[in-house]
From TrEMBL:
Family per record: Belongs to the small GTPase superfamily. Arf family.
Protein name: P-loop containing nucleoside triphosphate hydrolase protein
InterPro entries: Arl8a/8b, P-loop_NTPase, Small_GTPase_ARF/SAR
GO biological process, one term: protein transport
Annotated segments matching region Disordered: 54-76
Binding site for Mg(2+): 4
Annotated Low complexity bias: 54-75
Claim: Metal-binding is one of the keywords in the record: yes
Name of one Pfam family that matches: Arf
Annotated keywords: GTP-binding, Hydrolase, Magnesium, Metal-binding, Nucleotide-binding
Coiled coil: none
GO cellular component: lytic vacuole membrane
Length: 163
């Protein structure tokens, strides 16, 4: 796996449904593209790394955890959860994306000690996201865990109304 530069487009076949996936880079320099690519979509999938240690204080889910004035972490320490939560909440607050269903995927659940879906719901403050469908699954891309339920969730949000 190499970091996504800009975006990639893939079509994924799932049963009778073809899912057109826009995979957008997560690095800071690509985040201003997110809203544009999310307009008019059937669903937004936001992938987080559940192997990153959770913040020690369950209430401090945003902001830098290191000294005052330091930049928010982009690395693999627990401050990355705060960055992810802030970025997700900023994205879904965009008026153009009102009502778009959101699926948060907590990947790397094959790593020992990975955060559970419930922990990710708490640290990402998903219960604060209103007026849209919000789901969260713990998955492993590496071991193909819960990829089937993920595809079913996406198919059920297809414009053709597979529900
Ligand atoms: N153990 C494990 N590693 C994973 C899993 N999914 C991804 N990785 C690894 O995590 C690293 C980052 O994966 P990427 O798919 O490039 O992450 P990304 O979020 O697309 O990153 P950007 O493209 O920069 O946004 C790679 O080294 C992957 O091999 C997983 O389910 N389990
Ligand atoms: Mg990528």
């Amino acid at each position: 796996m190499i970091p996504t530069v800009g975006f990639n487009m893939r079509k994924v076949q799932a049963g009778n449904t073809t899912i057109k996936v826009w995979d957008i880079g997560g690095q800071a320099r690509f985040r201003n593209m997110w809203e544009r690519y999310c307009r008019g979509v059937s669903a937004i999938v936001f992938v987080v790394d559940s192997s990153i240690p959770l913040p020690s204080s369950s209430t401090s889910s945003s902001g830098p955890s290191t000294g005052a004035g330091s930049a928010p972490s982009e690395g693999n320490d627990s401050a990355a959860w705060g960055v992810a939560a802030e970025e997700l909440h900023a994205l879904v607050s965009r008026p153009m994306l009102a009502g778009v269903p959101l699926l948060v995927l907590a990947t790397k659940n094959d790593v020992q000690g990975a955060a559970s879906a419930e922990e990710v719901i708490r640290v990402m403050r998903l219960e604060q996201i209103a007026a849209r469908e919000v789901s969260c699954y713990s998955i492993s891309s590496k071991r193909q865990v819960n990829i089937d339920v993920t595809l079913r969730w996406l198919c059920a949000r297809s414009p053709a109304g597979a529900r």
